[in-house]
Amino acid sequence: MSGAEMRQLQALLVDDEVNLLRNLEGVLPWEELGIRIAGTAKNGVKALELAEAAVPDLVLCDIRMPVMDGLTFLRELRERGHECGVIMLTGFQEFEYARSALKYGAKDFILKPIDYEELQAVVARLAAEIRRKLRQEEEDSAIRRSMEALVRERVLLEALTDGAGAPELLPDAGGTGEERHILLVADLDGCAELSRAWSEEERRQRNQAVRQVLREALTRESGSPAGQAVLQMRDGEWVVLIGGGPVEPGDGDGMGGEPEERLLERGRRLRQAVQAACGLTVSIAAYPEAVTLARLRPAYLAVQRLLYLPEAAGDVAVLHPQEAEGGVGPDPGLWRLADAIVSGTKAGDRRRTEEAVDELARRLSAFPENGPQRAERVLHFLLLHLMRELRETGLLEEEQEAGAWRLLERGVGARTLLDTVRRLTGSCMEAGLARHSGGERLMLRAKEYIRSRLAEDFGLEEAAQHLGISCSYFSLLFKQHLGETFLEHVTRERIGKAKRLLAETDKSVTQIGKLVGYPDRRYFTRVFHKLERCSPSEYREQAGRHQGPASSG
């Protein structure tokens, strides 16, 4: 049973005849009808005061009363924004006069002397109508909340994947409309070994189970999932985002966040929840500040690097503020080179990748103190990171990965590790080039998939799963081949279809919104206005000047 059906309706009785008010209260079976009398009044002025306090669902009101009559009361009630159902009580000689109440939304009229059986039937019918309306509002609100949560996840995923974000598509958060987030990364301990031992289906189920546990743990802590997201970034890695409130004018990119002890405690609770529910352990690291959408990706990469350090493994850690500014470790430039090697290999950019590997070799050879140990530490991280990223793209052969693991387990020196990096990047780029035309075919399939599902609720994850590739690789291919992000493309396709329907059909704006994947009219109108600088109805009116009249619905 929905909240609308369970909630008792509130009624207000308004009449200057005391005996009639007593009869109205006592004769009708209000409790049986699921209605509570919230108050009674002898004139419109007192009734308005009660309406402001009680916010009634239903009002029975006389026409002729002293101080303020029923019609003036009804007009004032509507002007103050009350949408309750109103039944007017009137004498036969006032009936024509009472018809003017229709323009203020009176639902029905009851003639005096009152037939209480008739009144009960009218009240029951109006109560059922009110409950249907409340139930529909409840369903619409649930749809809107679900849509806002999904849109938030999609915008956040794109911001984390390639640094692109669309804050204008996020539900309004106050301030400038852009949110800030507390960021944690959960990384499955022993992910590589587990992934080699488990089937693809077992890995998928494991990833979904851990993601659900993290979501539930966050909801238990806050009491609501609003403003939170848990995003699967790659096999065995999840980003946990907690809305830290809106960015206000004058705020910088990094804003407060939470005390370190609070972040550590959050991480410990999340670790305990995963271990208790899934029998798996995760390492968790947090960024020390709440960050805007534009800063999510660099914050994520910094925390991701921290998790590769031995001191962070199998525990909970918070990135040091200085490392958040400059990067993990004594030479942040090394991490940037590692990122350039990974991204260059995935993009098939041989020149950029080889230049980054050569520069890495020069920097490693120039370490003044503890050079071999530091070089091996950086290369160890790079190989782990490289193998995990390339496994997501499908470019890394199983035997290549197994060979790299054997070297890591043997504890070989920096030169051998560097040669392994060169060999892996070279062979994976060759495989990537061989699959370039395949990438084009994948994107043609992606565009067809998008066009066929514009009316449905889907995102980057579903599209990537349909093509059989990871989210990160799908996002990379999409941007390379189509020159825009997945969310930008889907939004543009949906609004393009909406424009055609507005110009060529007489379907209502609400119907068209549903046909292009926006079941909530208000959200559809906001997205449409963002792209077209006018509302759907205004666009239809403009199109009608050239193509003939069409109903705005």
Relevant CATH superfamily of the largest domain:
Reverse transcriptase/Diguanylate cyclase domain
CATH topology of the largest domain: Alpha-Beta Plaits
CATH class of the largest domain: Alpha Beta
Shape: elongated
Total count of domains: 4
Distance between the termini: 32 Å
Q: Provide mean pLDDT, rounded.
A: 80
Give the number of helices.
Answer: 23
Could you write a compact summary of the structure shown?
By secondary structure, the chain is of the alpha/beta class. It folds into 4 domains: 3-137, Response regulator (Rossmann fold), CATH 3.40.50; 172-321, Alpha-Beta Plaits (2-Layer Sandwich); 330-434; 437-547, Arc Repressor Mutant, subunit A, CATH 1.10.10.
Account of the 3D structure:
Mean pLDDT is 80; it is low at 172-177, 247-255 and 548-553. Strands 6, 7, 8, 9, 10, 11 and 12 form a 7-stranded mixed β-sheet that branches. This protein has 4 domains: 3-137, 3-Layer(aba) Sandwich (Rossmann fold); 172-321, Reverse transcriptase/Diguanylate cyclase domain (Alpha-Beta Plaits, 2-Layer Sandwich); 330-434; 437-547, Homeodomain-like (Arc Repressor Mutant, subunit A), CATH 1.10.10.60. It has helices at 3-6, 18-27, 44-54, 70-79, 95-98, 116-162, 191-197, 200-222, 260-278, 296-306, 321-326, 332-347, 350-365, 371-393, 398-410, 414-434, 436-452, 460-467, 471-482, 486-504, 509-515, 521-532, 536-547; strands at residues 9-14, 35-41, 58-62, 85-90, 106-111, 179-188, 228-234, 237-246, 254-255, 282-286, 290-292, 316-318. The longest helix is centred in the N-terminal third of the chain and has 47 residues, at 116-162. The chain is of the alpha/beta class and 553 residues long. The protein is elongated and about 105 Å long. Helix 12 runs antiparallel to helix 13 (350-365) and helix 15 packs antiparallel against helix 16 (414-434).
